[in-house]
């Protein structure tokens, strides 16, 4: 079972999310939080796989709580759920190590899919959030980011670059292994090594670096 923490200051929203998630056979909402501070404490003290955080919460907002959970309970995958789709929020969420970002008007099945993707170690961006990221990558500031990303990627071996390129395409460890004729365990080892070399908190940040650098899979 995927154990989920739902954090939102509105009881009706929490109840609705709980109803959607528990309709899936493999998801269990094991805890709720009414504010960002409570979310951090619950993530630290409760066996949770995925935390679903609203951005607009008292005491600590969702993005600040995301950063604190990353330090206090780094094993917890965090999804940001909000009505606000501004580009800065999307990029801040990913920059703080978020596993994904989706809007509150997302379809119920999309919410379930996002939780499953996060629990599996993959990133999930709603279509709206993806558009914000793509727009930013196409902006003039992307040139400077690309240069910095290529500098950081120069520390990787050829094989590590091949694995990273597939992360940039959103592939799971299993799918990347199949593409590269490697076991899933071997890919996981490569991913850990890549994250260490690039000083990235998670595979989402590494994938964004790959995109900034223009890294593409062989033959891509």
UniProtKB/TrEMBL annotation:
Keyword hit for Phosphoprotein: yes
Domain Response regulatory: 3-119
Keyword DNA-binding: yes
Sorted UniProt keywords: DNA-binding, Phosphoprotein, Transcription, Transcription regulation
4-aspartylphosphate sites (modified residues): 54
InterPro entries: CheY-like_superfamily, NreC/VraR/RcsB-like_REC, Sig_transdc_resp-reg_C-effctor, Sig_transdc_resp-reg_receiver, Tscrpt_reg_LuxR_C, WalR-like
Domain HTH luxR-type: 149-214
UniProt protein name: LuxR family transcriptional regulator
Species for this entry: Streptomyces griseorubens
């Amino acid at each position: 079972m995927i154990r989920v923490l739902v954090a939102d200051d509105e009881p009706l929203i929490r109840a609705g999310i709980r109803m959607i998630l528990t309709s899936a056979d493999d998801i269990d909402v094991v805890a709720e939080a009414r504010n960002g501070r409570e979310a951090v404490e619950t993530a630290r003290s409760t066996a949770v796989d995925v935390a679903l955080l609203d951005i607009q919460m008292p005491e600590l907002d969702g993005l600040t709580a995301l950063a604190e959970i990353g330090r206090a309970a780094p094993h917890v995958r965090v999804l940001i759920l909000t009505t606000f789709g501004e580009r800065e929020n999307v990029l801040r969420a990913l920059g703080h190590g978020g596993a994904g970002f989706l809007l509150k008007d997302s379809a119920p099945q999309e919410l379930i899919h996002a939780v499953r993707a996060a629990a599996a170690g993959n990133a999930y961006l709603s279509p709206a959030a993806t558009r914000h990221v793509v727009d930013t990558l196409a902006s003039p500031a992307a040139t400077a980011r690309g240069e910095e990303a290529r500098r950081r990627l120069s520390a990787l071996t050829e094989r590590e670059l091949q694995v990273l390129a597939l992360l940039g395409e959103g592939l799971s460890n299993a799918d990347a292994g199949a593409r590269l004729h490697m076991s899933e365990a071997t890919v996981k080892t490569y991913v850990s090594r890549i994250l260490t070399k690039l000083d990235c908190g998670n595979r989402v940040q590494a994938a964004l670096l790959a995109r900034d650098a223009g890294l593409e899979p062989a033959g891509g």
